[in-house]
Amino acid sequence: MQSNADTIFKEFKEHSISEFFRKNSQMLGYSGKVRSLTTIIHEYVSNSLDACEEAGILPEISVLIREEGDEKYFIKVADNGPGIPAKHVGKAFATILAGTKFHRYLQQRGQQGIGAAGCTMYAQITTGRPIHVRSCTGKESFECDITIDIKTNKPLVTNMAKAECNSSGLEVSGLFGGIKYEESDHGVYEYLKRTVLSNPHLYIRFTPPSGKEVSFPRSIDEMPKRPKEIKPHPLGIGTNDLMEFAHKSESRKLSSFLEESFSRVTANKVNELKQLVREIDLEKDPHDLKWEEAEKLVKAFKEVKWIGPELDALSTIGEKQIEIAMKNILNPKFVSVVERKPKVFKGGIPFVVEAGIAYGGDAGKQLSAKGEDEQHVVEGNIIRSANKVPLLFDASNCAITEAAKSIQWKRYGIANFEEEPVSVFINISSVYIPYSGVGKQAVAQEDEIVEEIKLALMDCGRILQRYISGVRNKELQESRYKMIMRYVNQLSSDLSEITGKDAKEINRQLNLLIEKRYKDIFDAEKGEDAQEKKAVEAEPDSEE
Ligand SMILES: Nc1ncnc2c1ncn2[C@@H]1O[C@H](COP(=O)(O)OP(=O)(O)OP(=O)(O)O)[C@@H](O)[C@H]1O
Ligand SMILES: [Mg+2]
Predict the structure, then answer these.
(1) Residue 425: what are its φ and ψ, rounded to 5°?
(2) DSSP label at residue 105
(3) Do 358 and 20 form a contact (C-beta atoms < 8 A)?
(4) 364 Cβ contact partners less than 8 Å away, ≥ 6 residues apart
(5) What is the DSSP code (8-state) at residue 307?
(6) Which regions in the chain score pLDDT beneath 50?
(7) Is 170 in the pocket of ligand 1 (CB under 6 A)?
(8) Taking CA 207 as the corner, what is the angle to CA 326 and CA 322, rounded to the nearest 5 degrees?
(9) What's the rounded Cα separation, in Å, for the pair 13 and 5?
(10) pLDDT tens by residue, 392-446
(11) Which of 27, 136, 366, 479 has the smallest number of Cβ neighbours within 10 A?
């Protein structure tokens, strides 16, 4: 039987964003049992780090995972951050698209207002249980249970009670199902290890299901440079953004709205814009801005010559720290690290790329795909990070992977990038990382970003190339030296027979010649011989 519009549209319904993500939880990173567990820890730990950094507190985070059977685990993450006021706690943990970060131009790990509520929803749909939050802000201390009303995307806060606390901080705990703890390259342990390496000021205590507590002490007692909150640059926004800003503005005139809301817009620049969009009354109320007018203004923005966006808004990991991190993880023979100068993408969003290459040791061996979430990890020897958060999944879809694979590694002495003992590390810092999915595991392939990653890797590659050619040259010299030394005695006696001169003297002269030519190798071998002799002399004679 055929349906008509009336019968079809009996099924017409409106759904909340929570319902959408309940049905598509894989988009938030909840696919695969190991990955789902890492996602929960990643969301909570990133939030704790952001909160501590914004409050200027050296972060101390504890993570506990306890197995409760049947793919169920009790998880607790606690921090010493500023806590959350009671009136905001419900929305922070149980309204998708609510938070203190989405609307700001400030380099932070979170930027969507989805992560924490996503965890609450995942607990709810896998165990039917609420999450429990304990918060101490210094002014108030409370604990409560929180669930999401999935139909309305609104929080349900229950069992609110006063809590006893000595210092500020937030603790969130819950029972989660459909997850699995595994010590694989994309499991929680690896995630925390790499988080600590990118955040040397962080102290983490981790209790895995085995109960054996591990501590990752901080290696720096100072907070990193605080990222500065900036206003958006006119070149970084589109028509829709401009409409949104204008309609929310508290300015009385369009001209003052432009000056107050965007960076680099001065009274002079407003006058320049006026000449370009004569038909728009810049004295009108910004709430009355129409789409066509916003479109014209955005076009005019592109014609004005602006000073670039403020570049000191960014906070990087730092060359020294990356070097230490790569040495710690990979135990390589050589590391080269480069921090590029900040650049801009989409015309107005500042970002900066840091890159490192490690060669030898365990480089190239790490992070191979294994475990049951194998399909997500195609990472091989490319270690990715964005705003100091390790990216463990969705590698094939990421600007970092794309850039690293497009480098002509042969030029830098690497004949086969996939096979040789080489690993690359990339961190991108920005006030807005253009992730290609809500799960925030891959960076979109924006041209300027891909280009900068390539340049950073090429900078490191040139330094690596000098090292590799030095090593190869030395190996060549060593093999020549060995070859000559193998024949020197025979050659001396042959020459003695031909010339009638003393073989010993010829041998001495030849050795002098070899010493002169292969001085470094000769000296090194002599040094080793002397050390060996000393060691033999120092050894007590066992027969005596
Ligand atoms: N440990 C914490 N301490 C203080 N505030 C927190 C903490 N965890 C979460 N919040 C608050 O709750 C809000 C919502 O967190 P959530 O993880 O959902 O979003 P986000 O971090 O803003 O963005 P993203 O979805 O990208 O993670 C945050 O913006 C922050 O204001
Ligand atoms: Mg978050």
Answers:
(1) -125, 135
(2) B
(3) no
(4) 380, 381, 419, 420, 421, 422, 423
(5) P
(6) 367-378, 541-544
(7) yes
(8) 15
(9) 14
(10) 999 988 999 999 999 999 999 999 998 899 999 999 999 999 999 989 999 999 9
(11) 479
**Model confidence pLDDT, tens digit, residues 446-463:** 999 999 999 999 999 999
Cβ count within 10 A of residue 485: 16
Nearest atom of ligand 1 to the alpha carbon of 169: 3
Distance CA 223, CA 431 (A): 18
Tell whether ligand 1 has an atom less than 6 A from the beta carbon of residue 120.
no
**Angle of CA points 117, 123, 128, to nearest 5°:** 125
Determine the Cα–Cα distance for residues 44 and 274; give it in Å rounded to an integer.
Answer: 47
Tell me how far apart the alpha carbons of residues 136 and 500 are, in angstroms, rounded to a whole number.
Answer: 96
Instruction: Select from 50, 87, 388 the residue to mutate for testing ligand 1; criterion: most ligand atoms less than 8 Å from CB.
Output: 50
Looking up tokens 């985070």 gives 61
User: Would the CA dihedral through 463, 469, 472, 473 be positive or negative?
Assistant: negative
For 146, the token pair is: 């929180």
What is residue 57's predicted lDDT score, i.e. its pLDDT? 96
pTM of the model: 0.84
Cα–Cα distance, 121 to 118 (Å, whole number): 5
358 closest CA partner among 390, 388, 386, 323: 323
CA–CA dist 151, 23 (Å, integer): 12
